[in-house]
Amino acid sequence: MRAPARWLNLVGEAEYRDEAEAQLAKPGDAVLVVRGRTRSVVMACPDGCGETLVVNIDPRAGKAWRIDTRGEGLTLYPSVWRDGGCESHFIVWRGFLIWCDRFTVGNSEPRYDPSIEESILSAMDVSTPLTAAAIADAIDEIVWDVNRAANRLVHRGLARSWKEDATWFFVRVGDRTNGGTCE
Fold it and tell me: Which Pfam families does the entry mention (predicted)?
């Protein structure tokens, strides 16, 4: 077993899975499968187990992850959690691989940009709960960036969050037009 990868290394594109697999050399290497549109991300499992993962990006083929190529690198949402094999669980965020279960020592995240906080607060309502994905769609941002900023807003008392059926929701706190008074 090799050391776990800390970065997702996008090494190219291919038309078919077997062509994509041929381009994978080390843990964390990834190839986009593109036939008219992006179909999947094929990657060498970043934990070093030696297996190949296929992450579906095309919602026409069933459960699909979101893909975003803005910024420093590829982003996938939600996290990738293998049910079998090595059972790895990780986040791919702007090329960073953030381990959720093991190998967490050494995790690092993309640089924080506080300038999106105001847009997030503007997209939130005091009575309509929204997911980070819904907020990200409303303001055209990467879901993981929105999630981190929304949690910082919660810690500052400007928003509330709670979890229902494995999904986190956010609402703005109080009336921001009245000096930020909390409810």
Answer: BubE
